[in-house]
Structure formats: C-alpha cells, structure tokens
C-alpha cells in the first residue's frame, strides 16, 4: 500500500498546559533566597521537557512581583523546549495583590491560555518570603472566581520564617499545599520536586476512586502530605533557619 494515502493525515493534537511561577522579588529576597530560586528553576526546566509525553505541550510563564509585577516573557507562555531562564534580582516591596490581578487577567482563553487545541488546567506555583504590601484580599477574591484558577493545581512555598503562611494558604485553598523552606538547599530541593510533581499531576487524566474523580489539587495535597511524612526536609518543625 502506498504511503501517499497518509500524506494528509494531521499529527497528534497536543493539549496545552501552562506552568506558572509567581515569584516574590521584594528586597527581602536578596542574596541566598533569590539565588536559590534562580538556580533551582534553571536546573529543573530540562527535567520538565518530557512531562506529558506526546499528548501535552508544556509551556512556562514566569511572573515576578515586587513594586508592581512583570512577566519574564510578556508575549505569553513559552514552550518548555524553548524556554530560557533569565536570572531574577530582588528589590522593593511585596505587591502580591498586583500579581494576583495580573494572573487573573491572563488566566483566559483570550490571553495566556490561548491554544490551537484544548488547554488542560494550569499549574501555579507561588514563592514568597514575606507579607503582601498592597491590597491582596480583593485581588485574591476576584482570582478565586476565575474558573481556570479554581481547577488549577496550586502550591505555595514559604521562604524563611517571615513568610505569611496564612496568606499562602488562602491562595492555594489549604495549608496542606503550603511548604516552608528554611535553607537554600531545601528551597532548591522543594522547587525541583514540586515543579516536577505538580506538572505530572496536571498533565494527566484523573482516575476514578470509589466512583469519584479526585481533583488534581487533592492529589497534589496527598503527595505533599506523603513528602512531609517521609522526608525530614519537608517537615518545617524539624528544620532550622539557615538564611
């Protein structure tokens, strides 16, 4: 049989998934904290390339916030194969509410979730070492009404003892998906593990359990609970401050 009959067959249509990093770049992040973030994300990006296999087109979007906020790639999420990490620096306040409003604007099919085929729910990782210096409550309330945000896998990393874990838990929806990092090494480890695990969960279909589909957020919470039970680095009670 001639191969010509396959000439018009379209390739596999890949679903888009966006991995969002929301990164606090306020002045208190200077030094070891922002250095650990830069190193960890730069190193983990190549490991994300194969997640989802042929079915998922994984893209990355990075939003930094201090006095205001800005995207590392303002034109939109970049395919993991083409993504190049640009080191972040730290100065200024902690305009987390501004970042929440910007994220809300971009979580739309008319913006960063625009895709030629379908998009799966995004993954959103929030990293912060302090407390919001602007009105985050109204911005977060609006964000929580965004259907993409509701279905997203959301994890927050609290960096150091001054991070407001209550605000981070408000963002993710539960304290079960907030991790605390008290040393540069543990922060790098957490960023790698959480990035890979959340992307894996976000990229796959959820199986039935006892007749119900468990949400991806609940699956992520279960993974974090297991990490806290099995690895001392993920148990903040057993970790000394090391910044």
Key words describing this protein structure:
globular, disordered N terminus, alpha/beta, Rossmann fold, about 240 residues
User: How many structural domains can be distinguished in the coordinates?
Assistant: 1
- What is the CATH topology descriptor? Rossmann fold
Could you spell the SSE succession in H and E letters?
EHEEEHEHHEHEHEEH
Termini distance? Answer: 67 Å
What's the alpha carbon Rg, rounded to whole Å?
A: 18 Å
State the major sheet.
Answer: 7 strands, mixed
Number of helices: 7
Whole-number average pLDDT?
90
Number of strands: 9
CATH architecture: 3-Layer(aba) Sandwich
Structure class:
alpha/beta
If you had to describe this structure to a student in words, what would you say it looks like?
The structure is a single chain. This protein is of the alpha/beta class and 243 residues long. The chain has one domain (13-238): 3-Layer(aba) Sandwich (Rossmann fold). It has helices at residues 32-48, 96-106, 137-143, 147-151, 165-172, 184-203, 216-230; strands spanning 15-24, 56-66, 68-71, 78-79, 123-128, 153-159, 178-181, 208-209, 212-213. The strands form two sheets. Strands 1, 2, 3, 4, 5, 6 and 7 form a seven-stranded mixed beta sheet that branches. Helix 1 (32-48) runs parallel beside helix 6 and helix 2 (96-106) runs parallel beside helix 3 (137-143). The radius of gyration is 18 Å and the shape is globular. The model is unreliable at 1-10 (pLDDT under 50).
Give the helices and strands, then pairings.
Blueprint: E1 15-24, H1 32-48, E2 56-66, E3 68-71, E4 78-79, H2 96-106, E5 123-128, H3 137-143, H4 147-151, E6 153-159, H5 165-172, E7 178-181, H6 184-203, E8 208-209, E9 212-213, H7 216-230
Parallel strand pairs: 1-2, 1-5, 5-6, 6-7
Antiparallel strand pairs: 2-3, 2-4, 8-9
Helix pairs in contact: 1-6, 2-3, 6-7
């Amino acid at each position: 049989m001639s191969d010509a009959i396959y000439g018009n067959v379209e390739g596999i249509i890949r679903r888009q998934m966006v991995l969002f990093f929301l990164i606090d770049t306020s002045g208190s992040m200077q030094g070891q904290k922002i250095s650990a973030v830069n190193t960890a994300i730069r190193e983990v990006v190549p490991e994300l390339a194969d997640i989802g296999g042929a079915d998922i087109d994984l893209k990355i979007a990075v939003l930094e916030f201090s006095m205001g906020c800005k995207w590392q790639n303002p034109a939109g999420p970049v395919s993991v194969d083409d993504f190049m990490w640009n080191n972040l620096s730290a100065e200024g306040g902690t305009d987390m509410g501004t970042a929440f409003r910007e994220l809300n604007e971009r979580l739309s099919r008319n913006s960063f979730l625009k895709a030629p085929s379908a998009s799966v729910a995004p993954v959103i990782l929030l990293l912060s070492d302090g407390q919001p210096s602007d009105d985050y409550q109204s911005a977060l309330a609006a964000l929580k009404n965004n259907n993409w945000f509701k279905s997203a896998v959301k994890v927050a990393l609290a960096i150091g003892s001054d991070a407001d874990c209550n605000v981070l838990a408000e963002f993710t929806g539960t304290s079960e998906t907030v991790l605390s990092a008290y040393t540069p090494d543990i922060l790098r480890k957490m960023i790698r593990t959480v990035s890979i695990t959340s992307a894996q969960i976000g990229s796959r279909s959820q199986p039935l359990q006892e007749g119900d589909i468990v949400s991806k957020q609940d699956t992520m919470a279960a993974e974090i609970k297991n990490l806290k039970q099995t690895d001392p680095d993920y148990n903040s009670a057993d970790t000394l401050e090391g910044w």
